[in-house]
Amino acid sequence: MSVTTPRHRVSLRAERAGKAGQVSPAPPPDRTAPTGETEWQRWQRNFLELLQELRVAQTGVQILFAFLLILAFSPGFDGQEPFTQVIYLVALLSATGATALIIAPVAHHRVLFRRQQKPELVRYAHRMAYAGLMLLIVAMGSAVLLATDVVLPRSAAVVVSGATVVAFTLLWVVLPLIRRWRR
Q1: Helices 118-151 and 82-112, interaxial angle, to 10°?
Q2: Does one domain contain both 7 and 84?
Q3: pLDDT tens, position by position, 13-34
Q4: Are residues 74 and 163 in the same domain?
Q5: 63 and 141, same structural domain?
Q6: Is 10 exposed, middle or buried (0-12, 13-18, 19+ CB in 10 A)?
Q7: Residues 24 and 71 in one domain
Q8: 51 and 8 within one domain
Q9: Which of 23, 34, 86, 135 has the fewest CB atoms in 10 Å of its CB?
């Protein structure tokens, strides 16, 4: 929680800790949006919403990544066949890329903290999060193919994996874009 004055914002925690003289820089001049929030408040809200979304995705992508890392060292994993090797590498590398992209906004925030670059941070974080989700679709499809190839004939495994990718693409890309275009 913070107290806002025209010139600066002072953290109540800092004030309680006896650091009231330390002031964070003032946000840029306010331009009020139709919703009643200033442009700066809107950027702040957008960033907080994005971080909350990334917390959800981050957990899933990290679990998938850990599973894929451990899988190569599991005694039952047969990574000798070229098809399995390729699918495993696609799954592992796309999960690696998704992990990097989904966590990257947090690192960017740390570097840009208190630099008055919230709009740029939100734009870049949005792009990284979206790219991370696209790689996560690839990772999920590859992981499903890797698992179903063990229990189903290869052709059936490819169909199941393809259906998984189509379902994720519909839910994460197509339906949101349709809603966006209709507004």
Answers
A1: 160
A2: no
A3: 444 455 444 444 555 555 555 6
A4: yes
A5: yes
A6: middle
A7: no
A8: no
A9: 34
Beta bridge partners of 9: 4, 24
CB 83 within 8 A of CB 106: no
pLDDT in tens, 71-106: 888 887 777 889 999 999 999 999 999 999 988 888
Q: Cα(163)–Cα(70) distance, rounded to whole angstroms?
A: 26
HEC letters along the chain: CEEECCCCEEEHHHHHCCCCCCCECCCCCCCECCCCCEHHHHHHHHHHHHHHHHHHHHHHHHHHHHHHHHHCCCCCCCCCCHHHHHHHHHHHHHHHHHHHHHHHHHHHHHHHCCCCCHHHHHHHHHHHHHHHHHHHHHHHHHHHHHHHHHHCCHHHHHHHHHHHHHHHHHHHHHHHHHHHHHC
Verify that 63 and 18 share a domain, yes or no: no
CB 117 within 8 A of CB 97: no
CA-wise closest residue to 46 among 57, 37, 36:
37
Q: Is the dihedral of CA 60, 66, 103, 99 positive or negative?
A: negative
CA distance 10 to 183: 39
